[in-house]
Amino acid sequence: MKSRIFPNAFALLGIYFLISIALFSTPSQAVKHNLFRTCEQNKFCKRNRHIADYASSQTLEGKEWTSPYEIDVATVALNKDKTAKLTGNILKTTPKGFVTLPFSLSFLKSGIVRFTLDELKRQDGNIEIPGNKNIRKERYNDLDKWTLIEENLVLSDGTELNIEQVEHDLKISYGGGNKLFLQSNPFSIKFYRNEELQVVLNERGLLNLEHWRAQPPAPKEGEEQVKDSELNVWELEEGMWEDTFDGKTDKKVRGPESIALDISFIGFKHVYGIPEHSDSLSLRETRGQAEGHHKDPYRLFNVDIFEYEVDSPMAMYGSIPFMQAHKAGSSVGLYWNNAADTYVDIIKTRPSNDKMISSLQSTQTHWISESGLIDIFVILADDPSEVNEKYGSLTGYALLPQSFAIGHHQCRWNYNDKSDVLEVNSNFDKYDIPYDVIWLDIEYTDDKKYFTWNEKAFKGHDDMIKELDETKRKLVAIIDPHIKAVKGYKQFETLESKNLAICNTEDKPYHGHCWPGESVWIDTLSPEARKLWVSWFGKDQSWAGNNDNLHIWNDMNEPSVFSGPETTMDKNTVHFGGWEHRDVHNLYGMTYHNATLDALNERYNYKQRPFVLTRAYFAGSQRTAAMWTGDNMAKWEYLKAATPMILTSGVAGMPFAGADVGGFFGNPSTELLTRWYQAGAFYPFFRAHAHIDSKRREPWLAGEPYTSIIKSAIQLRYKLLPTFYSAFYQASIDGSPILKPLYYVTPNNEDSFAIDDEFYVGDSGILVKPVTEEGATSVNLYIPDDEFYYGYDDHEKIYKGVGNYRIEAPLNTIPMLLRGGHIHVRRDRPRRSATLMKYDPYTLVIALDKNGQAKGEMFIDDGESYNYEKGEYLRPEFELDIETGILSGTNEDETVLTPYLKSLWVEKIIIIGANANQIKEGTAEVVEQDEAGEEVKRSVQVKRLSQNSAVIVGPRVKLANDWSIEFK
Ligand code: NOJ
């Protein structure tokens, strides 16, 4: 494996390349552990783990460990305006007395509870920062505006709370069977739902907020360093003022400021979420004894992790500090609103006689962030879907993509020139393989200067984009946040002259290295920088032309800094507003891709919904971008790892997710490539991508039988586009994952809770288990409930009963079943792109449940614009009951019917699970209400397909109309 550096550039970039060669070129294909800090090496994490160890050693020795935090009860009060918010102070005991920490406990109308904890001295700016006037004194308190949906933070009315005082503690009922118990000394909060304890904050007493103190003076020669007099005996001092790793020193001018809290999920054996990690769906222990547990906590710190490893808690490109816990009967969501470097330890308790409540098969977690506020949201719910809906009310739902964006994307690093692009484009037509988007990686630019072209290779780029448009294809071009620091380059000169780049401690643009060599980074936390960014995408900018089929890929936005610590930005750089990068590290990538979305919205004057792909992300990124899992490898274990990663992303509210099909590094065997397309055909974001050093692998190069098998997997995706699109719509209104883990459908079947190699596609009932083993010709598929399941293509195969089933899966087969009770929608006419399918008729596929019933719904709009927000859409619901013999299609929503929507019709209806007595061959009667509301009757032909299925040929019902079909 060669380096990912473009080889010819080596000579040009001197020292930088010496550094990056060391970092990025390795024949061994394994993550460089030495580049990334473990908890032990990241001293704020070590200090907090040390407290956890101290606390448990005390308990083991039979001594009592008590949290040094208590509520000052005299300060607790309900909001003056009588809204449901309690405020007061928590006191931290130190050897020098109490430190005052203002807290708030808010009860939102949505039923979510928010707890915040700040530090009075820093809040008031009553601290000294030696030598650094531009840095803010407060703990970072500006995150809400990026992550939260303000209008959904409305507080309940205080009168809706039922507060009962029990000595110094408070019992608060806050509606919907939810209650909490606020204990003052030691501080803890217990959350109950329907009288059952669900979550406890600070059960183990690991709450820690490192308060401000003056740095002890440096020792005089020959003297020992004076110990920090504010430290309790259980606290470590290490790394409070500076922390050196890999030869780089991070100076912490604000001193120690980490925060930590333990959160126990009572009776929950499974917790999920906190992407991004290449790991199982159900998170593993990080401190326990269980086999296969991790040694380090899960880390949330956006980094360009080169050649990442699977089954690992290591930090990756994105971070969403949202965790879900699930058990039969209830689910919990926990959102930790903090964008600093964060670790999460997980311990699963076993039944014991231990005094802790959580010792009964529970999950204990320990959250540790380097800086910022403690700001958490607790969601109690009946099931995982409700958790997603509520979490989405906080951080937003995914943007509904255009239909092209959920089609098949073709990328590689790089398509060499204009003719290469156009040739690949026409080869898709030649081989009759559908695709919608071709991508350009960094080599299209002039010397990695974004917003420019390599005019030699891409001479006539405007015509190229137009030609793609003529074949109804789009172009996605990469634009990264590092801006080459070179005179004469407009973007650099503007950032520098207006001081809109991320700054060093001297308030000058920070310089580091990335693809172009020496670079600066746009500071998209700054409103002015964002405006500038927006202007660079305008149709008046010559690089972008005035085409309407250009969309954007944002890469390297962790940000990736080859010369920086852990391949990222120094934590003591400074952003707009005087905030240290330390506070906003995980947020930066989102501010950047949000700015790109704004730019495309402006470019297109809000006439079409832009597509932006991002590598770095945070809570809220779902509102504006799709993500992919970064630089995987062309190996079977990475194909396997992609499924749980994509499922986790969906669980954490970021459903538009995918992995590089084929694997980024290396060359997949034709078998692996084929299996990857079969799996990728179900990824919400479906893109083939490859490293610059890998061999070309467009589908037609695989040769037969592979090319045909790949083609039919892609065609299947295109058939299912209406089903995917409807799932995307659902995600955009209630946060539902596009690919659902089994436990979403069977929330009471414990055996399904950890399954992460199978999934359902939205609410369609399609259950898929991609083949991820080399040479496999069958899979063991687990059916989690006793509904009927049918072979997707072979309707004669019916699976009944919970358990494992061997499903034949020769290379040309994707193991997939159809769960009884669902109706899903397809478009069965093969076309070259999603855009070209726009006017095609639909096929309904009905799979009857045990009782002979099925239901389904779909969403249709123009697939491009924001007009659906003004009511221009259809949301037909379908229902069949075999007993009454009536199938119906109805539109409940009052929508605005455009000529396009009125033109859409059904060409075929397949019914699975009905025998020849239930649906007879012959005719059925269609009753359709036409536009004028008149009933029109006609008969249609019904044919038997097999013993178990039938088809209605050409029912021609319009989806905008209400209709029924009665079987005789
Ligand atoms: C890193 C990205 O992860 C990869 O997909 C891309 O090809 C390279 N950067 C080059 O832009």
From TrEMBL:
Signal peptide: 1-30
Metabolic or biological pathway: Glycan metabolism; N-glycan metabolism
InterPro entries documented for this protein: Gal_mutarotase_sf_dom, GH, Glyco_hydro_31_C, Glyco_hydro_31_N_dom, Glyco_hydro_31_TIM, Glyco_hydro_b
Lineage: superkingdom: Eukaryota
Gene Ontology terms describing biological process: carbohydrate metabolic process; N-glycan processing
Domain Glycoside hydrolase family 31 N-terminal: 102-345
Entry's Gene Ontology cellular component terms: glucosidase II complex
Compartmental location: Endoplasmic reticulum
Domain Glycoside hydrolase family 31 TIM barrel positions: 400-727
Pfam families: Gal_mutarotas_2, Glyco_hydro_31_2nd, Glyco_hydro_31_3rd
Key words of the record: Endoplasmic reticulum, Glycoprotein, Glycosidase, Hydrolase, Signal
GO molecular function: alpha-glucosidase activity; carbohydrate binding
Residue span(s) of domain Glycosyl hydrolase family 31 C-terminal: 735-823
Family: Belongs to the glycosyl hydrolase 31 family.
Protein name: Glucosidase II subunit alpha
Protein's organism: Magnusiomyces paraingens
